[in-house]
Protein 1
Amino acid sequence: MEMFYFIARYFMYFFIPLLVVSISGMFSERSGVIHMGLDSVMVWSCMWGVLCLQWLDGVVAGQLRLIIALLFAGVMGVLLTLLLAFAAINLNADQTIVGMAMNTFAPAFCIFFARVLQNGSEHLSIRNDFLIERIPVLADIPIIGPMFFTRTYITNFIGIAIFIISAIILNKTRFGLRMCACGENPQAAESLGVNVQKYRYAALIIAGFIGGMGGLMYILPVATHYSQTVGGYGYLAMSVLIFGQWRSIPLLGAAAFFAFCKTIANAYSGIPLLNNLGLPAAFYKSLPFIITLIALAITSKHDHAPKASGQPYDKSMR
Amino acid sequence: MSVKTKKKFEIANYTGLLSSLIAIVGGLIIAFIVLMATNPSKGLSAFVTLITGGFQLGGMKNLGTLFYFATPILCTGVAMCLAFQAGIFNIGGPGQYSVGALAAILTSLYFSKNLPAPLTWIVPLIVATFAGAAWAFIPGVLKAYFNVNVVIGTIMFNYIEMYYMMHWINDYCYDAMKGQTRAIPAQCRLPQAFMPAITQNKTADIGILIAILFAVLAWVLIEKTKLGYELKACGKNAEASRYAGIRSKRNIMISILLSGALCGLGGGLTHLSASGTYITMKEQLAAEGFNGIAVCCLANNNPLGAILGALFLAFLTVGGNYMQIFGFQREIVSVITSVIIYFAAFSLFLKQILERLLMKQKTQINKVTGEELK
C-alpha cells in the first residue's frame, strides 16, 4: 500500500505541470495562435522563478516565498510570450517558426545568463523547503488522505485551481467564448464587434502567465537544481493538448494518461513487476513519447483543432 | 523610400535576400546589446571577434574549422529546405542526424574497415544516409496516413533517439575510459585530398565538398525535375495539387525521407571527419539538427542559399568559440541564431510589404504608359 501512495504522489509531480502547461497552450490555440514555444516559456520562466527563490531566501519565509516566485515566473513567462504575440498578431508571422525560434533562444540565453551570473557554472541550486508533510484533517481521510494530502506541494492545489478557473473562463464566460470565436472564425467574430487582435493578446498573456508558473511547478518537486532543461515537457504538453482535443475535460484525462506513463518511466525500477521484465531503461524513458505517438495516430484522424489556429488574421479575407 | 532604391527591388529575389539581411542584422544587434550589457568593458572586442569569425586571432587555419562546422549544418539545412518545399516542418533533424552519426560509427567499427580502399568510408556514409531516412520514416507515415502533426511526430522521435542513443552506445561502441564512443579506424575517415593545403589546416577533409554537392543536387531536384515540381505544388496547396492528380501522401513520404537521409548524411560526414569527433554520453539533442532550421530560414528554403547560410552560421560559431578568450560564453551564437529564426518567421510579411510597394510603382508606370497609348 505504501508503494501505491508513493506512486500516487509521484504521479502528481508530473501531472500538475503537464496539465498547467497544456492549459497554457489551450488558451493560446483556442484564440487562434499556435504555441510551439511552450517548452521555451517553461525553461525561461523556470530560471527566473528559481532566481527569485534564491533572492528571497532568508527574506521571506515558508510558502510565501514559493508563491511570490510563482507569480514572478508567470510575469516573466508573459514577457517571453509577448514575443510570440507581437510576431503572430501584428506581423502575420509563421507561428510555428516563431515557436522554434523561442525554443532555440530560451535554453541558450538561460545558459549564457546563468554562467554570467555565477562565473562559469550553469546550474542554479534550489533550496526546497516547501514540502508539506501532512495537511491537518484532510490527511486523515482514508486512501485519499495519504495519496493527495501528505507529502504534497502547494503547487498541486494551485494547478487544480488553474484548471477549474480556466475551464470556467473558456466555457462559461463571455470573455472566454469570444476568445474561442477568434480561434474558430475570426472574421465572423470581428463582424460582431469583437476585436480579434485584443482578444488574441489577452489569450497569449494568460497563456504566458500560466505557462510560466508551470515551468517552476515542474522543477520544484523533481530536481534540486535547475539546468536549463525541462525534459521536453513543453512538447509533451503540446501533445497532451492535441490528444485532449483542445477541450478542458478531455485535457484533464489526457494529462493524467501521460503523467501516468511518465510516472512508470521514472519509477519502474521500484516496481518489482516491471523491473523483472529486463527491458532497457531507454525503453521506459522513451515510453511517454512512444505512447504519445500511438495515441495521436489513433485520435488525429478527426481533429477538433480550432479552425483558424496558425493562420494570421487578415481582416480583408472572408 | 526613394524611387531610386525602389528600382533595386525589381527582381523578386532581392526582397528575399533583403529579408535575410534584415534577419542577420537583427540577430547581430541583439548579440551586441547582450554582450555590452553583460560586460561593457570587453563587449566591443568580443563582438568584433564574433563578426570577424576570429580570423584575426586564429588566421587562415580557421577556414578548416569553419568548413568543419559548416558541413553538418549545411546537410541539415538542405534537409529542412527539402521538407519545407513540400510543406513539411521536419524538426526531427537532431534525431535523424544522431542516428546517422551512430550508424556511420558502427558500420566503420564492425564492417567496412576491412573493405577495399574507397569503400571504407563510402559504405558508412551510405548506411548513415539510410539510417537518417529510416528515423524519419515513421513520423512520415504518421503524417501521411494518420494525419499526425509532423512537428509533434518528429519531436517525439528526437526524444526517443535521445534516450536510446545512450543504450546503443553503451552496448556497442562505448569507450569507458573516455566516456564517449570508440574512435573509428583511420582508414574509415574521410579522405583529406587537397583540403589541408587549401585551408592550411591539418585536419580538413572533403566533407564540405560532399555536402555542397548534395546541396546542388537538392537544388536540381527541386527546381529542375518533375518530382521537385510536385513537391513544391504540395507545399503550396496540398488540396489543389491532389485535385490536379498529384499523389500528396507519396510526396510527403518522399520529402521527409529525403530530408531524413540528408540529416543522416550530415551525421555521417561529421563523425567520419578526419579531425575525429565522438558522441559523448549525454542526454541531449544534437544542436546541428536545430541549426539546420536557421540555415534554411536564412536561405529562404533555397538549397543553394543554404550553402551561404551554413557558411555564415559556421563563421559565427568559429567567432563565438574565440569569444571565450574574453570570458564570454559561446551560447551567444545560439541566441543570434534564434533571433535570425525569429526574424525569418515574419520575413514573408516584410517581403509582402516590399513587394506591395514595388507593385504600386509598377501599376503607376502601367497607368502612365496606358494613357500614352490612348
Protein 2
Amino acid sequence: MGIAMSLPAMIVLFLFTLGPAIYAFFLSFFSWSLLNKMQYVGLSNFGFIFTSPLFWTAVFNTASFALVVVPTQTLVALGIAVLLNQNLPARGFLRLAFFFPAVSSSAVISIIFMWIYNKFGLLNGALGVLGIPGPNWLANPFFALKAIMMMNIWTTSGYFMVVFLAGLQAIPQEIHDAAWVDGAGSWYRFTRITVPLLKPTTFFVAIMGVIGTMQMFDQAFIISGGTGGPLNSTTTLVLLIYQYIFSYGQVGYGAAVTVILFVFTMAVTLGVNKWLGKPIEY
Amino acid sequence: MQVPVHRATAKVVALCGLSLIVAASSASARTVRRVSGKPVTITLSGWTSSPVEAQLLTKDIAGFSKVYPNIHVLYRPISGSGSTYETVLRTRFVAGNAPDVIYVNNGGESSTFMANHDLIPLNSYIKSSHFTIGDFYKSSLSLFEQGGKIYGIPKDQSPLALFYNTTMFAKAGIKHPPTTWAQLVTDAKLLTNPSKHIYGLINSVQEPRWAQFLSEAGGGVMNPAMTKFTLTSPASVRGYTYFVDLYKRGIATVPTTVGASWGGQAFGMGNAAMVLSGDWLNPFLKQTYPGIHYNTAVLPKGPVSNVSLTFPVAYGITRDSRNPAAAWKLISYLTNQQGMTRWMNLGLALPTRRSLVGLPYFKHHTYIHGLLAQLPHSLAWTFPPGFVQFSSTTMLNQTTLAIEGKESPLQALKNMQSGGEAILKSR
C-alpha cells in the first residue's frame, strides 16, 4: 500500500530527475552532436575537459562565486533575521520587502540589474554623487562576476532570512531568560545561545547555498547574453554545460562537465555535512 | 533579415519566451494528410528581427492561402536572434518534429544542418517548377549550396554599409561620408568627443563586424575553398590592425562604453557618429529613435577594395517535413519574382534577386541607397561545421584583448589562426 501511494511521485522522480541524471552519466562516454549518430569514446571526453583551459576558468568562476556568495548571504540573512525578530515598527512590511526578491523571476531581476549596472545606470549614478567614478560593471571582466555576486546575494538573502527567522523562533525563550538572569549581555547571548542553537538552520542554509551557487546559470546567461563574457569571466560550470550541449553541439563534453559538477557538489556537501551536520547537544 | 548585433537583448527576450514557445510549437498539432488534393498543413518557423517582421509575414502568408486553399500554413516564429533560434531548432530536429519550412541563417549552424542532411536538396523542385534560380546573386545562393545541391532559397539579405549621422557630420563641417580608410580615421577623429560620450564609430567587435576589413586589404579569414585559415597573411594582418587601431586611438569604441547593448542602439542614442550595420537598423531607428537624422553610404575603400559582408537568409525544407511538395509551393510563392517584390515593398531587407535592385520602393527611400550600392561589392560566407564556439567566443575574446591593448593585433590573429587550424585538423 505504501509503495502504491508513493508510486506516482516515484515515477515522476525517475522520469524527470533520476532518469536524466543517469542518462547524463551515460552520455559522458559518447561523442554526439544531437544531430548525428552517437559514438562511444570511452573517457576521452573527460580527458578533453580536464585539459581545457575554459573548463578550469569555469571551475575558478564557480568556486569563487560560491566562496563569496555563500558566507556573505548566510551572514546577511542571519543579520536581517535577528533584526527583524525584534519588536521593530513595520516589521511585517520589512520582512515582506526582504523576501520579495526570492519570489521574483530571476530573469526579470537580471534585466533590472542590467539597467542598474549600465555604464550610466543607477549604481554608477549613485557612486558619481559620492565622487567615485563607477566602472563599466558588466563589460569589464574584473567586475562582471562580482556584479552578479552582489545581485545574487541580494536575491537569495531574503529567502534564507525567512529560514533563519523560523529557526530563531524555534529557540526556547527560557534559555535566553535564564542567561539574562545570570547576567549575560545581548552579544554574549547571541554568540553563545542563538548561533549554536541555530546550527541545524545554518547547516540547511549553507547546503542550499552551496548547491544553488554551484548551479548558477540563469543570471550569468542573461547578463552575458549566453556567451559567458566578457572574456569568459562569467562562464560558470552550468553555463558551460549549456553551451557545450545546446550551443556548440558537443553533448559528450557537456555531460562530462555535468558528471564532474555532480562529484564536486557531492564532495562539498559531504564536507559541510561533516562540519555542521552533527546533532546539537544542549 | 538578420540582427547579428542585437543578440544580448534578443537572448533575454528569448529566454523568457523560450519555454512558452517550445510548449506552444510542440502542441501545434500538425494534421498532415498525404493524399494529394486533400488539405494539408505545413509549419513555417523563423526568428523575427522585430514584431513588424512577424506581422508582415503573416500578411504575406494570408495571400498564399488564397492562391492555394488546400495548403494551410501555420506560421510559428521562434523568438530570439539567429543563434538562439538555432538552439531551439536543434532540439526540434532531435525530437523529429522540426517545422516544414525554416529560415536558414547565414552563419552559425547552417553549414551543419546542410552537412547532416537536416535540410533536403531543392534542385528537383527548382527544376520541375521552372523556378528562375539564375536571377539570384551567386554570392547569396552559394551560401546555401553544398556539393552542387541547393538547400535554401535566399529570401532577402543585407550587406554591412556605413550609417552616418548627418547632423553630426554637418556640425563638424564634413560634407561627404568617408570614402577611404584614411578619411574614415580623419572624420572619426573630428567627430569623437569622449567628454560628451560621442565616438566616431561604435561597433561591437565580433568577427562579422571586422572580417570585411581583412577582405578590403586583400586578405580574409579563410581561403575560398575553406581548407585553411588565412588570418596571419600580410594582407589580413594589415586589415585587422587598421580595425584594432581605430579602437586603440579612441576614435571607435564598443557599445557598452556608452551604455548601449549594440552599435545600432548607440547610433540611435546619438553617441555614435557612424556605425557599420545592415538594413535591419532602418526599421529599428524608425521605431525607436525617429528623431535621428542619418544616411547610408558604401564602406570606405581599403588598400584593395571596399568589399563588405552580406547576410542573406534563406528558406529551407527540413527532413522532417511530410509535405515537401506543399512546402516548396510556399517557398516558391514567397521568393519568386512577384513574391520577393511584395516582400521588398514592405521595406525590411534587400533583394537576393538581381532583377529587383531597381524597384521603385528603393528609389523613394534614400537611406537605402548606400546599402543598395554596397550590394554588388559584398561577399557572403560562413564557417564550415564545428566553428560555432570558435566564431562566437574565441574570435570575440581575442579581438577584445587586442582593442584593449592587452595583446598585439598580430598576436590575436596568431591565436585565432592556431585555434581555427586545430579545429580544422580535428574534424
